[in-house]
Amino acid sequence: MTKFTVISGSSSKDLAKKLAKRLGANLLKSQLRVFPDGESKITLEGKLQKNKIIVIQSTYPPVDENLIQTLSIISKAKEYGTEIIAVIPYMGYARQDREFLPGEVITMKVIANLFKSVGTSRIIVVDIHSMIGLKYFNIKSKNVTAIPDLVKYFSKLKLKNPLVVSPDQGGKERAKEFAKFLNTEYISLEKQRDRKTGKVEIKTTNFNEVIGRDLILVDDMISTGGSIIKATEFLKKQKCARVFVACTHALLRNDAEKKIKKAGVTKIISTNTIPGKTSLVDVSGTIAKAII
């Protein structure tokens, strides 16, 4: 009997398959049926064994639907499993980890309580937006990074004197780590976002070190691409060479990919935490190491 059973949610089928293969685990698929009223019904295909069960599901849009489905699968798995490991490659609501404005609900706190209540033993996430969110989980929790996996991809590209760039000060440490693995330099731009309107402005005035160099804009996630677009437009004015984008989670909502390319980005490279055209980097190996 294998040590693990992997249960795949509908949003992470390919990643679940790769993870199960790496772990030599049984793979159980979940069948999803959505009724006309919007309710969903989940049926697990196959027989569950009395062993450690890994439930893998990213909670990208539709976030609430994917979240409810994840919690439902964990609840069912708990009836059989000796230990339930929730692998949430992309954790939705991670940006709602504190009360920014009076009266705001700290949704990550609510979600953490839900995961515990359905029987989760431990949780593994990939490049969560803020580590503060993990503090709400009163279970074993671990954040793993996809940076080494992304760097491996970029190291195979023929880049001209590459420079790693963070689109804001908040991502400075991420850019620093990326540059360290790639054995190159990094810089970070200064960004200002209006909390009410969401409008983004680049406050940095000049960066001579970008002239003629290929740039890698590094971020943890891209939603609508506003920050990346502003950063690209600014950097292009500084007479850089090509601009690439590296991110773990490519949500790319509202035609973001098209808009980012229009701003002057040569290529967007993301991981398979969220499946899509840009998800060229596999993180199943990194997740497998965290589980074992």
Tell me about this structure.
- The chain is of the alpha/beta class and 292 residues long.
- The protein folds into 2 domains: 4-145 and 282-291, Rossmann fold; 147-272, Rossmann fold (3-Layer(aba) Sandwich), CATH 3.40.50.
- The protein contains 8 helices and 15 strands.
- It has helices at residues 13-23, 63-77, 107-117, 147-154, 172-182, 226-237, 256-263, 284-291; strands at 4-8, 26-34, 40-45, 52-56, 83-88, 122-126, 140-144, 163-166, 185-188, 191-193, 200-202, 215-222, 243-250, 265-271, 279-281.
- It has a 7-stranded mixed beta sheet with strand order 3-2-1-4-5-6-7, with helices on both faces. Strands 9-8-12-13-14-15 form a 6-stranded parallel beta sheet, with helices on both faces. A two-stranded antiparallel sheet has the order 10-11.
- Helix 4 packs across helix 5 and helix 6 packs parallel to helix 7 (256-263).
List the helices and strands and how they pair.
Blueprint: E1 4-8, H1 13-23, E2 26-34, E3 40-45, E4 52-56, H2 63-77, E5 83-88, H3 107-117, E6 122-126, E7 140-144, H4 147-154, E8 163-166, H5 172-182, E9 185-188, E10 191-193, E11 200-202, E12 215-222, H6 226-237, E13 243-250, H7 256-263, E14 265-271, E15 279-281, H8 284-291
Parallel strand pairs: 1-2, 1-4, 4-5, 5-6, 6-7, 8-9, 8-12, 12-13, 13-14, 14-15
Antiparallel strand pairs: 2-3, 10-11
